[in-house]
Amino acid sequence: MTQKQEGLPQHLLATSRRLLLDALATSGMLFKIIIPISIVTRLLQQWGVVDQVGILLAPVMKLVGLPGEIGLVWATAMVTNLYGGMVVFASVAPELDFTVAQATIMTTMMLVAHALPVELKIAQKAGTRFRTMLLLRVGGALVLGWLLNIGYQLTGTLQQPNQALWNPPPVDPGWISWMLAEARNMVSIFLIILALMVLLEVLKAVGITALMTKLLEPILNLLGMGKEAAPLTIIGMTLGLGYGGALLIREAQSGSLSKQDVFAAFALLGICHSLIEDTLLMALLGGHASGILWARLFFALLITYLFSLLIPRLPHGIFERYLVRSTIADKTNAKEAGCC
Which residues does the UniProt record annotate as the domain Nucleoside transporter/FeoB GTPase Gate (predicted)? Predict the structure, then answer.
């Protein structure tokens, strides 16, 4: 056996240990965001705050061609997650004469703006401004919903009655059931993050990451992103903002991504993430691929491209004040510069 072969087990052991520690650190950082926000969100639901937000959104829903009752569905999805919005929709849908077009508008808006307390905090932790990302996602959802409504009305498409394919089972409202469900979610998140880190390591070792980055580099350059953001952005777009965002936070805090890369990545992911799971969930409610997949993807690419044109023309102070914020890497660099 050669010396190289003898050293292989030690190398694999060291790599496994490093990936496990990285996954624990990344998951722990994510849990510090998710756990307190989940508790506050749960309390807001029980205190009826979400219901009041739904009432306030009722007039806005009519602007995108939806009945006012859908305001509660969107409010629930924005404050909790897509599953919460789906449960509320199942309870109000029998009373609504919904078309496929309306279902597509509603589900597309839910996909653009959902789970905002958690997902905006993740984006903020990576170095973007909370209020800017909030405006981008809620405003983007409304603009995209309005455009879809106009398009479906002008073309007369998808006007047939909607048939949702999903009827949720009753949800236990107790705190114990909620805490058990959250604990299962935490374990799932850790396992998925560990699996993603292993996958990234394998893809990097066999050269697929380099190939993927090379193929996507022209598109990323057009969107104002460097090649370093490519693999993590792809993870976020395919699997979700929580997983891709957690890895982006790690890279942003290490200083390997520029602030423009971070902002462009989260602008893209904020509007269009989890293209597999979330898209399929909204299809169960009757959402059509023209909205929940293609319009959302095109809209996200367009918005990110427009930001890539705007950001270089902005004064540096405006960019720093309104779009991005200081990260751990910035503070560390500032301290080192001060010491020198």
Answer: 30-114, 187-274
What secondary structure does DSSP assign to 215-256, as a single string? HHHHHHHHTT--GGGHHHHHHHHHH-HHHHHHHHHHHHHHT-
Mean pLDDT, residues 241-264 taken together? 82
Q: How high is the pLDDT of residue 258?
A: 87
Does a structural domain hold residue 249? Answer: yes
Query: What angle (nearest 5°) sits at the alpha carbon of residue 189, between those of residues 173 and 25?
Result: 125
pLDDT-based confidence at 43, cuts 50/70/90? confident
Give dist(CA 130, CA 136) in Å, integer.
10
Report yes or no: 132 and 106 within 8 Å, Cβ to Cβ. Answer: no
Task: Give the per-residue pLDDT at 335.
Answer: 47
CB atoms within 10 A of CB 253: 19
| Position 175 in a domain | no
Q: Is residue 8 part of a domain?
A: no
Residues 6+ apart with CB under 8 A from 290: 104, 157, 158
Considering the chain, what percentage of its residues have pLDDT values greater than 90? 40
Give CA separation, 309 vs 74, 260, 273, 302, 303, in Å: 31, 12, 22, 11, 10
Residue 5 is predicted with a pLDDT of 53
pTM reported for the whole predicted model: 0.84
Say what the pLDDT of residue 337 is. Answer: 45
Q: State the number of CA atoms in the 13 A half-sphere of 43 facing the CB.
A: 6
Distances 47 to 40, 41, 178, 224 between C-alpha atoms, Å: 10, 10, 16, 43
Strands (E), 29-167: none
Per-residue model confidence (pLDDT) at position 236:
82
Domain of 83? 20-168+185-339
Residue 256 falls within a domain, yes or no?
A: yes
